[in-house]
Amino acid sequence: MTQPRRLIASLPLMLLATAAAAHTGGSAGGFASGFAHPIGGWDHVVAMVAVGLWGAFLGAPALWLLPVVFPLVMAFGGALGVLGVPLPMVEAGIALSGVVLGLLIAFAVRAPLWVAAVIVGVFAVFHGHAHGTELPDAANPYAYGIGFVLATGLLHLAGIGLGAFVGSTGGRIVVRAVGAAIAAAGAGFLFGFA
């Protein structure tokens, strides 16, 4: 393998690498921690993939608007969490995001764009708040925030990729089945089964 290819192949590993912690149990809490947080929690993964999938199902402009609304509003929710602003039922809101978004996909709901954006935005506040309150004390909040927003965007892209199947009859059935699975996973988180 040539030198440039090795460098390119190692980029994903560099993004996931964490800083060395000098104390047992310590966490750098910067970019790597922020990036890993959404990917490490299945409740976040299913909801964020669902945003991209529902956007793909709805088509343009929802295809790009919903995955932009979610991280922007999520960053606002994260700031509330960092500031210690209380938000009731955060975990229930995160779990319900999977249930609701999954059902919207499973039942092929074609909501108006502004309604879809409001639904996605409301759930983004809960996800962001959880990210913000779980921010380690010694962390760089800006690097952490950039990490979790970037990971969120990649999860939305995964959902959009799944949504590429919407065009065919069989693909629509697969997408709706994935929506049902997302709803079931959200229900599992909500009722403590997952």
From TrEMBL:
The keyword ATP-binding does not apply. The chain crosses the membrane at residues 46-70, 82-107, 113-130, 142-167, 173-193. Residues 1-22 form the signal peptide. Keywords: Membrane, Signal, Transmembrane, Transmembrane helix. This is HupE/UreJ family protein. It comes from Sinisalibacter aestuarii.
